[in-house]
Amino acid sequence: MTHPSHFIELFFAILALVGIWFSISNFSSVKRALIGRPMRTAELHAQHNKLIWYIALPILSADLYSSVAYGPESGITELVKLGNEAKWYIIPITISTVVLLFILIISYIMGILAYPNGGGAYAIAKDNFKQRWVSLIASGSLLVDYILTVAVSVSAALEAIVSAYPIVAPYETVLAILCVFILLMVNLRGIAESAKIFAWPTIGFAACMMILVFTGLFNEVKHGFVQPSTPPFGSVPKGLTILLILKAFSSACSALTGIETISNAVPIFRKPQQKNAIKTYIALGTITSITLLGFAYHLYVRGISPNPNNTMLSQLTEYYFGHGIMYQLIIWFTFIVLILAANSTFTGFSQLAAIVAADGFLPRGLTNRGDRLGYSNGIIVLAATASLLIIAFQAHTNALIPLYAIGVFMSFTVAQFGLMRRWKRVKGPHWKTKLTINTIGAIITTIVALIFAVTKFTSGAWIVLIVIPVLILFSLAIQHHYRDVAKELKIDLKTMRPEANRVITIVLVSGVHRVVQNTLSFATSICQENLLALYVGFDDDSMKKMEAKWEEWGNPCRLVTLKSKYRSVLEPLSRLIHLIEEKEQFKSQIHIVIPQFIPHKWWHNILHNQTALLLRLWLLRHRDVVITTVPYHLKN
Amino acid sequence: MTHPSHFIELFFAILALVGIWFSISNFSSVKRALIGRPMRTAELHAQHNKLIWYIALPILSADLYSSVAYGPESGITELVKLGNEAKWYIIPITISTVVLLFILIISYIMGILAYPNGGGAYAIAKDNFKQRWVSLIASGSLLVDYILTVAVSVSAALEAIVSAYPIVAPYETVLAILCVFILLMVNLRGIAESAKIFAWPTIGFAACMMILVFTGLFNEVKHGFVQPSTPPFGSVPKGLTILLILKAFSSACSALTGIETISNAVPIFRKPQQKNAIKTYIALGTITSITLLGFAYHLYVRGISPNPNNTMLSQLTEYYFGHGIMYQLIIWFTFIVLILAANSTFTGFSQLAAIVAADGFLPRGLTNRGDRLGYSNGIIVLAATASLLIIAFQAHTNALIPLYAIGVFMSFTVAQFGLMRRWKRVKGPHWKTKLTINTIGAIITTIVALIFAVTKFTSGAWIVLIVIPVLILFSLAIQHHYRDVAKELKIDLKTMRPEANRVITIVLVSGVHRVVQNTLSFATSICQENLLALYVGFDDDSMKKMEAKWEEWGNPCRLVTLKSKYRSVLEPLSRLIHLIEEKEQFKSQIHIVIPQFIPHKWWHNILHNQTALLLRLWLLRHRDVVITTVPYHLKN
């Protein structure tokens, strides 16, 4: 009966309470103002209009394309401590990143060909591996990475703002949390991810980046491709190791997260869906490559160094355009696109969580659609965990990067191996080419994932490498529990039917007054026999008084009076239950009827004993008794 | 149905939950380790041994005598900004304080003569004024001041430690909160306030202070009563105003809080009780006066200035004894005595709160004795509010002083006026002398209270002057509520008896499985007619399936299937209740039976819908229905 886990229970109870409030405040004006009127289930399928590919492109590319704002910078940050001579490495590293981007895009095109209805890494793994844990690696690593995407994107968005307005630097964490809260509300309201309005900021950002790249090119044509500020090319700085280069490469690869978005979204394309999705992939790859390469080259030519309070993108823009309108445009487009990237993750996370939960590997609550038809619980979990990360890492993008992307590459790897198995099994036209492509993809993503794990291990990746296996173990335990429960609850409809039992009803009375009268009226309505009233007194005097009063009241039923040495109703009631259970040899059902005051004003609750509530909680958990609460609504 | 107060409700619900946890974790090992085994009510009267006066003296004087550690310092802090020339004012100010101390002690001796069974300001006011608000001024101001005593004493205790060990300065607030937490636990364990062990630290502290005073005197005899460091005497510094002097005087009066302790404790003295208590008062007054005057004089001679990181007591000790053993002794005795002062306040606060609550002016929960026979709720409220004050004022004694003492002087005033009325009414031997003494006392405490209110108003006293009236209004509202409820609940035993009613029972079913079978078995045991099962489906398909299954199950009772457009059980159930209420013209009692899973492991709760809990909460608050929970304890 001793629970050392009471503190943890308390914590969960508080969490649950917040959830409960959100659920029961169904008609609350606060909730309505924040997330809008509830929507009918029937409204679910009325929203999708199929998209032309060049509209789908900006909508689906926010996640990947926005990463150019922090990818190259986090790569070079690793090397810059070796001095000016290491700066040229940004060029080979960016080229490797772009090569990897194309390999991944081609691999994902294979995925589209295999699963035209859209299939993420989890679906591919589920379809091709019997072992449940393989698909759980895919889902676990993707879920963890979605959380990191929100943390990283929002932090990077605020770093853009801080570059332009250093005065807000001390409030970075608070503002980041505020952004997550706004994203939470927006997603609980359930704005469709595919709304066309989301195309414009990404188009604007891409246009700005192109202007930046071509302004840079123009500048270099005019002032020379080697400028006074250009660091030496090809030099090997002292202290450079392969490990350091690999570390820089894996940091730069954080720019590749978000590739999976298009392949998950095939169904929203206009027909021919596969062809259009492939077109989009190629266009996105081309634009991203140009941006990454151009951006990296200009950074090198200008010899720009990372600065924690001024992003390299901001520094470069300042150099070309000063602090004018163009600078403001780029900063604000960067901010909006990064926030959009975080926003699209909310849909991705909650949908994946709902799919995995429907398979029984995560709490079933994640499959519930909220008032506005989004998977509210998943949305809330994502916002909460991302906020915790932002607080823990104080909204510093470069501190979060080592945790990031490793999950994405793990899920990439699982997906590639899944596709390999599929081509071998299903075959079909050109299957050998497809198999070759995915095999190359699998090998490369495995290598990249390993590079991540090794080079980033000590700077934070170990957290992810612990969290993902733990998540998998939990998922397996959860499914185990659901199966056991299902087995336990299953009954044979023909033989196991409800059967009436002997019921012994105990009504708790604290005196003779209207609440007790109300409660006893109900009790006598439902049972005429085996009814007894229990009075717990703290001293002999009060017990005698009660017995006399009961007599005067005409003995409505048998009264049992018990004395509590410890001033608590729990202990004598517990004793009585035990006694009855033994006497009846556990054959009768014990039924406790508890009166409960419901005061008119909520703050009056603190003026009345909450014994009813306490008793109910304790009895339900520790005894096999049925509990009835008879409310008495106070008029005052 | 719209509640804008939902957020506040949530806050109170969380508070309640913490309380609930503490209450239901009756057998929890954590609670047992912290506060010990529960004690029987019968153990209550087995603890008091009557005390000889010279043992009672140190036990009861911690609160008053410990104030010498901060009283003179907070007085001179007000003046020191006028420069060195203002320092001599510490002498006249301390003399006035000592004069006031004697007037108060004589007045309180009158109180002992009038109420030999111990009577605080609240009891005196209650006995002598018909107007309830007069006694509520006394109780309200005392309760507020008790809270401040804890905050001020603990802060001052930590300032003593910080003076000796500047390294802990940044952790002052955290350590202060920790001290309050330890005091909370100690008081929930219920160590008797009158334990003789508490005499020693105060004796030790008093001895140290005497040694300090006489060492100073010796030093001055040897090196002259005017030393190079002595500031000029009798000069009037520029900028000195009457207001400033009064402000300094009222700050110094913070040394006078705690006088009431002895008069409240008359019953713990050996016989003749009154005589012994009076002896104690005179001895305490003498020792306190010598200490205050000697301490103030030496501070003046040495020209010591206040320093936020080194108390004046510490500076003086350093000067006479260096950083040796004597210094350590004085610092640690100061610390312990100040903590003891805070400790004795816990008993004072919780007892006064229980007395006022028993009169119906505060929530009745404050009269409950906890497991260890102390008034736990009062103890918890005191610890919580004092902690909030410490956090808000970052454990700075001098920031808290302006809020302090005004309450004490308000209650002193009420007590004096009460005693005046009593002498006029009761008369008795020497009543005219006694009346004169209390009249002088009343006039002086009124003046001092006014000086406090005026001089400290802007630096924080306004908070107290708002809080006390608000507390009084709340108290009156609470009593009003209790009276109304009592009136509403009262019934005529002869005519109003429990009456059986028609009951309509609705069993919520989510399918056909063991939990539903269990629930329906109970429902059929208690009622044969007017029983119906309600199934809420989210789509037509599930509803049809359920109907077929029910048929196959042999139709155990009538099944109603309702569709929820908004994926919630609440709304269709609410509709059904409404319908039945109208059809039955509110003559039958509606009874909802809800199945509830009780998982084997607590963390499994997050894997199951908490619909039962949510429904119960909402229905109890918003509908007049009886709710029965039928638990099903999962084996897995």
TrEMBL record, chains A, B:
* Alphabetized Pfam families for the sequence: AA_permease_2
- Whether Transmembrane counts among this entry's keywords is yes
Query: Which keywords, in A-to-Z order, does the entry hold?
Result: Membrane, Transmembrane, Transmembrane helix
InterPro entries per record: AA/rel_permease1, APC_K+_Transporter
Top-level taxon of the source organism: Bacteria
Check the record and name the PANTHER family matching this protein.
POTASSIUM TRANSPORTER KIMA
The protein's organism comes out as Neobacillus ginsengisoli
Name listed for the protein in its UniProt record: Amino acid transporter
Topology within the bilayer? Multi-pass membrane protein
What is its subcellular localisation? Membrane
Membrane spanning stretches: 6-30, 51-70, 90-115, 136-158, 164-186, 198-219, 239-259, 280-300, 320-342, 373-395, 401-423, 435-454, 460-478
